[in-house]
Amino acid sequence: MNKIKKILVATAIIMGAWVVAPAQSLVRPKPLKQGDKIAIISPASACKASYVADACEVLRQWGYNPVIGSHALGKHGSFAGTIEERKSDLLKALTDPEIKAILCSRGGYGSVQELCEIDRNIFAKYPKWLIGYSDITALHGAITSQGVMSLHAPMCEHIAKFEGADSCSIVLRNILAGTMPHYKVAADMRNRHGQASGLLLGGNLALLNSFTASPIDMLSCYANRDVILFVEDVGESLERLNRLFYTLRINGTFDRIKGLIVGSFSDVAYTPDFAHVYDMIESIVSVYNFPVAYGFPVGHTDANFPMPEGAWVTLTVDADGAELAF
Questions:
Q1: In the chain, which segments carry CATH 3.40.50.10740?
Q2: Is this model's pTM higher than 0.85 or not?
Q3: Residue 24: which of 291, 230, 213, 258 has the closest Cα?
């Protein structure tokens, strides 16, 4: 908790009630009410049953009614179930009118498998908050590409670990109830100052690169819109991260975006080329003029603050740090 408090200077709540999203934003799912049902599904890797059980208890304390998917606790190899089973849980959660939001139990890998088997237009027909990160970036891509906001945020393990009482979980709870956040983050010496507005899009860097030019490539889908990009990753070598960032440069992403938010890059296997992954990123984006905020608390760490994908935001980076206003 102390680490999170040091990273995030302030998490100010700027809206006390749900309001209609601005015209620039994608469709925002409706806020939840007390007693609403939240489905828990496992679209990728298998999840520990204890994480799901403990997260369910937190959701009940928040006043919601958790509904565990039929295959959410399953196991098929490293996956939570077969493609058909995981697809079934996803479609059930989407189309059931009593389910008001969907919490993914964990990431891992495999979410894209279901996306190859369904009509992705379904996300526009049933706009609901889908919550998760890491491999769930694939689902965020599919949902935002259909014009609906999605929620890059902690999943069952995090919620269970902190019993829903940490800052990240509290912000998640507030977003579900209709209150958007306002983030202020301490300055990083590598930050590039400036201000820009656009659609907030992004997530796991490896996933974003994997789906380049596909129907779930959110960055290509909104190539004609102003975008604030956020990225994070875990367990990648510096060499691979270098390739991934250069892919964003050579495919024109960095030519189009209006601002860059650099989250956590944890468990990096370093080479002698750079002392820190942020130094490597700085060397690649130095030829551009958009504002850059390093050290933003999002990624595979305890400081993983919710980022509503497809929301219209203003990023301000100055000597005091970085501010992200929704």
A1: 24-179
A2: yes
A3: 258
